[in-house]
Amino acid sequence: MRPLPIANPANPWASTIVDYVDEADPDDPDRPLAPPARLQVYEDKTRQILSRNDSPDLHFGWSVNPYRGCFHACAYCYARPTHEYLSFGAGTDFDRKLVVKPEAASLLRAAFERPSWTGDLVVFSGVTDCYQPLEATRRLTRACLEVCRDFRQPVGVITKSPLIERDIDLLVELSAVARASVTISIPFWDAERARAIEPYVATPQRRMKTVERLAQAGVEVGVNVAPVIPGLNDEEIGTILVAAKDAGAHHAGMVLLRLPTSVAPVFEERLRERLPLRAEKVLRRIREAHGGKLYDSSWGVRGRGEGPYSSAISTLFESTATRLGLRTRATEPVPHPHETPSTFRRPDRAGQLELFQ
Fold first, then answer.
1. Which residues pair with 225 in a beta bridge?
2. What's phi and psi for 229, nearest 5 deg?
3. What values do phi and psi take at 84, rounded to 5?
4. pLDDT tens readout for residues 194-216
5. With contact defined as beta carbons under 8 Å apart, do 135 and 67 qualify?
6. In this structure, what are the phi and psi dihedrals at residue 271, rounded to the nearest 5 degrees?
């Protein structure tokens, strides 16, 4: 694993800032060199596990995030600024200072037991990947999905990780009693470009194998070409969708690159470091798709962009998906949770007690 020196954009909520240098400066010998960013795991003792989402750009209202921060270290991750609320940085702190919620499953069970809960769709990884490497030993996501199975709770899972294959048995059980689907994020097809921008994720081809294995098991699965980075991976949209269809995918989604606040400097630094010959073209194309800016946070625009270039990207995605028979939000709009009956049921406690008598 390539060691990373600590590097974070300035945290707007912090009262102090440490500015490191890459090499010793003879004119300023007291300025510290950046130490290596080592993995550190913290426990979150929060008493809530369900997060409410009110964004009109998303198709779900509730999410579960057993982890905060993400070892995958994707330069484009829109969740990076959330780490700043923990007094961490949005750069290597987000990649290596990871927060786990050890009581996630018991908190989720308690939330489902409340009379106010009616079974709205819950999405895993609304923020950071619920199958990042820590899940291999912590098993927090699997424990939460077991709770969802017990309550017949409708679930969506978004991940980049082949680790989800470990839980195919559970996903099959869940699918038998509730609406359940998995979306695998595959924004690149070129493995070298993928490694440059999302360095600790399995190759795109390996992720597509996960799509195939989930489909073969009978799990509703699709791909998310997200984020589409103008000038870098938009040319690969068609290739990814064709491979997804061949692998057995049922649906597809697309989100244009978002660079809110401190994500922008992290992304630009990585782009210039790992893909220097592409950097200026990519940044120019991003601005073309966002009205001359690197990012526009307006509802309805931030994930789609605006102008001829972003329209061309959307047209390419929709036309290709339609030709291949892949469902998209445009061809099959997601119904409001209250417009469809939920499979959610609280377990029969009396029946469970009889098992122990």
1. 254
2. -105, 105
3. -70, -25
4. 999 999 999 999 999 999 999 99
5. yes
6. -60, -45
